[in-house]
Amino acid sequence: METRTEEHVFDSTLESVDAAEAVVLKEAKELGFDEDDEHKIGISVRECMVNAVVHGNRYNSRKKVHLALTRSPGALEISIADEGEHFDVSQLPDPLADENLLRHSGRGILLMQAFMDEFQIRPRQPKGTEVRMVKRLSRGS
């Protein structure tokens, strides 16, 4: 199987979160991820899409969320980018600090880092933030 990339553009709505998750999970299933890994990939995509729609684009109907999926033998790479302001990940409050444990937001990035094999956040030009995540197939499942 050769490497192939597909790109999707979504509106800045919460409906796009479900649509993006469905696209990614279809690829993950075809690639042969087990149910546990599909669940981890799904949560990571949902968290990332919500961040892009809510925090990045702030529901702005003129701004889009860009999803790129690269499927290669044994791995799925997911890039999700918004068109909002850049943000500095080092400025995020620690979700595990006592004062933040009961907050409803702030755990998405922690979950994505825990569930995916690779996780990077970088500024996008001219505006926006891009998150790149990779999940590798574990051989033995």
Structural description of this entry:
The chain is α+β, with helices and mostly antiparallel strands and 141 residues long. It has a single domain (4-136), classed as Histidine kinase-like ATPase, C-terminal domain (Heat Shock Protein 90). It is built from 3 helices and 5 strands; from the N terminus they run βααββαββ. The chain has helices at residues 15-31, 35-56, 108-115; strands at 4-11, 64-72, 75-81, 118-123, 129-136. It has a 5-stranded antiparallel sheet with strand order 1-2-3-5-4, covered by helices on one side. A hairpin with a 5-residue loop joins β4 (118-123) and β5 (129-136). α2 packs antiparallel against α3. The model has no long low-confidence stretch (mean pLDDT 89).
CATH-wise, what's the superfamily? Histidine kinase-like ATPase, C-terminal domain
**Cα-atom radius of gyration:** 15 Å
Number of beta strands: 5
Mean pLDDT: 89
By CATH reckoning, the class would read: Alpha Beta
Task: Give the tags.
3 helices, alpha+beta, 5 strands, 141 residues
How is this fold's topology laid out?
Layout: E1 4-11, H1 15-31, H2 35-56, E2 64-72, E3 75-81, H3 108-115, E4 118-123, E5 129-136
Helix pairs in contact: 1-2, 2-3
